[in-house]
Amino acid sequence: MKKVVLAYSGGLDTSCIIKWLESKKYDSIAFIANVGQQEDFKSIENRALKTGASKAYVLDLQEEFVNDYVFPALKAGAVYENKYFLATALSRPLIAKHQVEIAHKEKATAVAHGCTGKGNDQVRFETTISLLDRTLEQIAPVRIWEFKTREQEIEYAKKHKIPVEVTKKSPYSVDKNLYGRSIECGILEDPWAEPPEEIYQMTTNPLEAPNKATYIEIEFAEGIPVKIDGKSYQPVALIHELNKIAGANGVGRVDMIENRLVGIKSREIYENPAATVLHSAHQELEALVLDRESMRYKQPVAHKYAEMIYYGLWETPLKKQLDAYIAKTQERVSGTIRLKLYKGTCTPVGRKSKYSRYKIELATYGDKDVFDQKLAEGFLRLWSLPYE
Ligand code: ARG
Predict the structure, then answer these.
(1) Which domains does the chain have, with CATH numbers?
(2) How far apart are CA 175 and CA 171, in angstroms?
(3) What is the pLDDT of residues 197-231, one digit of tens each?
(4) N or C: fewer beta carbons within 10 Å in the chain?
């Protein structure tokens, strides 16, 4: 038997994979990554072992996820196609990295995942793994196995006594971590259909959110959020807290048609309360402290960075080079942003920073004005000069 490290979720697919790999003479080591999806990890671990995994790893990766994946994306201002904050996409290279580490530790020669052949996640897993260790054999059972329908998988599970709860069958495919939830399939495949309220978990319906606005202040230190309303938080706790506050105000719902890497357009719903607030606040603070050209130049970088996360290129040289550039841009991104959360909206209403480039004496039309308006005359002559 060859050893394989399987990224295991506890669902029907990855459970069937353990048995299926066994039939192909692979001994599975189940790896369960806690990225804040708030599940009963003990029972997932038991399920893996009962299904036939020879060993199970449960690793709490939340802190690493926030510090090394979520925050760099925030500093970059990375948002895919202007709407998706990349919660799912960011978790994949992290899970893949640990999968490789476990494979090395266990002297496994293969790794496996439960992604389909139509999505982006297979790309993120396999590209990351290839970049970290080309010698590992990569197995994607769902792309090649004989099951065509969920019913066939359930049959297989029953036959092999795989302990999965198939009673509460949801029509949706959901991926969750502490930075957001991604929901697709079912009625959502009709791009004309409004998402039913039942799909949401992290956000209150904006119509039912409080009738009074909630104000919050977020303080950043070099691009990283460190305080909410003057109180310090550890990174993971800060994200949880913002999810709670913003979610209660119905903030963070996204309904989009996105372009998958494999060429398919898909309809996905996202819930990302904390990400919505953080990107909004971070961008607002950059507007205050960065000079005009730094801001302009950073925009296409943000776009590129988002695309690289989406495309599974986290471990590439260019992505690391961009990290160095982005880190440099964040040196002055310290300060506080005040936001108003109200029935699904998130609006920055105040900003301050010791590095502020806003100069009241230049901007004002009041009596503190020091701007010499006469200088504008010569400037304007020269401005139009190239067109004479
Ligand atoms: N479309 C998102 C992405 O590619 C999420 C993928 C997982 N979504 C899901 N509902 N299972 O990052």
Answers:
(1) 2-64+86-175 (3.40.50.620), 179-352 (3.90.1260.10)
(2) 13
(3) 999 999 999 999 999 999 999 999 999 999 999 99
(4) C
